[in-house]
Amino acid sequence: METIDTKINVLDSYDVIIVGTGVAGLFSALSISPKYKILMISKDKIKNSDSYLAQGGICTLKEPSDFDAFLEDTLRAGRYENNEDTVRVMIENSPMIMERLIDYGVEFDINKDGTFEYTREGAHSTYRILHHKDVTGKEITNKLLNNVRERDNITLCEYTKMLDLIIEGNSCKGIIIAWEDTVKAVYAKETILATGGIGGLFAHSTNFRHITGDSFALALRHNVELENINYIQIHPTSLYEKDANRKFLISESVRGEGGILLNKDGERFVDELLPRDVVTEEIRKQMKKDGRPYVMLSIKHMPKDEILRRFPNIYRHCLEVGYDLSCQDIPVTPAQHYLMGGIMTDTYGRTSVSNLFAVGETACNGVHGANRLASNSLLESLVFSERAGWIITEEIDGVSLDKPTVNLKAYEDVEAWEKDNKTIILEEIKRRDEKFYDKWCNSES
Question: CB within 8 A of 431, min separation 6: which ones?
């Protein structure tokens, strides 16, 4: 596979451009026929996607008898604002997705008898979450990336910013990129947006700082339909570190394995397995009562060897900042975590603009409703990015490769363009939900 670096020129056209290198972008690329030429770009390092940070695991339909409960758990967590048909598509396809991941080399934790070890998290009625220790996202992302690197038809390009979409006559013709101090038009028959969410717009977020919702700003500039862009999930438990640039997530699976939340007097104050939005609000109330910007999380009931087996990454990070999970409580605080809304799509990732797709956290197909069920994000990303790859493979030969003229001088001040994009998104969130904006958003972050 060709890898872009400073010595190689980005070509001016491809069959498919994929913006983003998290699991949604990678799985899309692997689901497209290898006979088509694909460019994948990342705004930062290839691995610096929020998929890589995912800890808890990935949901799956463990057995047919769990279908109705899985559906109900997802709908209830989403306050019944989900698209039920889309949720059904996700659940029905989950066993096949697990098989494909295993074929790509993904390893899930197993019991001593060789069966898969399942866990549960908040708002799940049973154990249906597969995991790889507490670094499931890293395991899946690495294995998918290894497979992408083996494809000769795929070019990966790091530190490349998407500045704009090239849209003519309600059809996407490619993108404008900033790469190696050069602004360039790159054309394609099909474009997939897999840029993640909007965490970089918040002062306190578990997301990488460079993930600032570029796709949503461009959607607003070009009248690509958005849905529920103000449906933003705050995770109840990130590690409280006063000067941390990115909040370190304490996975919900820690509470799923019996971790409890305590106030300043060491008293439990909430059912830790309620939906995330409920737990978050209870933590906010308790912090106000206690007069401090955190509450405590305890998992001291677990033997140390079990903590090291299930949560080695979390244990290691906490130890680095001075907390031993096996014998100490740790301070936690809510932080922005996930966007349920995004660019409106169907179950194949198609948007309101022809030849433009959106997948993963960038897309809103109605699966999550108003509040995502824990560990549905990786599954949702994989199911619908695969379906996008299928439909692109089926239809791409009927798409012409057009190259409309673009005024590249309009993008010479990249920093100003990016600043405007951030302002556009924040203003849209405020317009849709001023109460949420006043409580959580920080335009200076």
Answer: none
The single residue of 128, 255, 276, 350 carrying the catalytic annotation is 276
- Specify whether the CB–CB gap between 122 and 272 falls below 8 A: yes
Instruction: Using alpha carbons, select from 292, 153, 273, 161 the residue that is nearest to residue 218.
Output: 161
Query: For 370-419, how does the pLDDT look when each residue is reduced to its tens digit (9 = 90+)?
Result: 999 989 999 999 999 999 999 999 999 999 999 999 999 999 899 999 99
333: nearest Cα among 237, 241, 268:
237
Q: What is the pTM of this model?
A: 0.92
Q: Which DSSP helix (H) or strand (E) runs through 19?
A: strand 13-19
Q: Please, are residues 37 and 15 in contact by the beta-carbon 8 Å criterion?
A: yes
Q: At 119, is the secondary structure helix, strand, or coil?
A: strand
Helix (H, G, I), strand (E, B) or coil at 432: helix
The tokens describing 134, both together, are 């507490």
DSSP-derived letter for residue 320 is H
**Interhelix angle 214-222/414-432, nearest 10 degrees:** 80
DSSP 248: P
Give the residue ranges of DSSP H helices in 179-261.
214-222, 252-256
Residue 317, amino acid: H
User: What count of Cα atoms within 13 Å lies in the side-chain half-sphere of residue 180?
Assistant: 11
Is 276 in the active site?
Answer: yes
